[in-house]
UniProtKB/TrEMBL annotation:
Species the sequence originates in: Mycolicibacterium aurum (Mycobacterium aurum)
Alphabetized InterPro entries for the sequence: Papain-like_cys_pep_sf
UniProt-recorded name of the protein: Adenylate and guanylate cyclase catalytic domain-containing protein
Length: 194
């Protein structure tokens, strides 16, 4: 369903002198969620090294990193921590729910038709922002790309009228276009080897 060589996305959390962590949503419950101190499926904060070792050794997958430039500010890190506090433990959706939600994300929204009409587009964008704000507090399940998109947007890294279910892991791959705000960019993939 995506043209990218990517089937999962997570976000590195590297704050101060903490070991690198990964913020993501996954089906597995073998890794300790460092936010809650429990093992569970869904949205979780894991030790990045353990996650990479598991994907490479247990799942026979390849892993890549992409560097955000410029680095996140202290305020953005604080916003990310608030997202983690709110979303950690959110369950992963069932396959049917994930597929349906992803398919709805592919449908055009009003903003797709109002670009180029500034007054109307501004009103549509305000409406989208209100809907996103409401969804933020009522999210019952989340998949990996939604989890990262929500964190990116709340950190001020994304600029889009698209809803979170528009994102899939391939959107974060360098072969696609991620709607980052003007001042930010993600570098090319860096392969991770053990």
């Amino acid at each position: 369903m995506t043209n990218s060589p990517v089937n999962h996305v997570g976000m590195t959390v590297a704050i101060d002198d903490m070991p690198p962590l990964i913020w993501h949503a996954e089906l597995g419950d073998k890794l300790l969620d460092l936010w809650t101190g429990t093992n569970h499926r869904g949205v979780q904060l894991n030790d990045l090294r353990q996650a990479v070792e598991r994907w490479i050794n247990s799942y026979d997958q390849r892993c890549w990193l992409r560097q955000l430039t410029p680095y996140a500010s202290r305020d953005q890190e604080d916003r990310l921590l608030r997202v983690i506090a709110r979303m950690d433990g959110t369950p992963f959706p069932s396959t049917a729910r994930l597929t349906g939600r992803w398919m709805r994300g592919r449908l055009p929204n009003a903003a797709d038709f109002t670009r180029g009409i500034p007054f109307v587009h501004k009103k549509v964008r305000q409406s989208v922002e209100r809907r996103k704000e409401k969804t933020k507090t009522s999210l019952e399940t989340a998949y990996c790309a939604e989890t990262v998109a929500i964190a990116y947007e709340e950190m001020g890294l994304l600029e889009t009228e698209k809803h979170y279910n528009w994102f899939d892991p391939g959107k974060f791959w360098s072969g696609d276009t991620l709607p980052l705000t003007e001042t930010y960019q993600l570098g090319d993939e860096i392969a991770v080897h053990l």
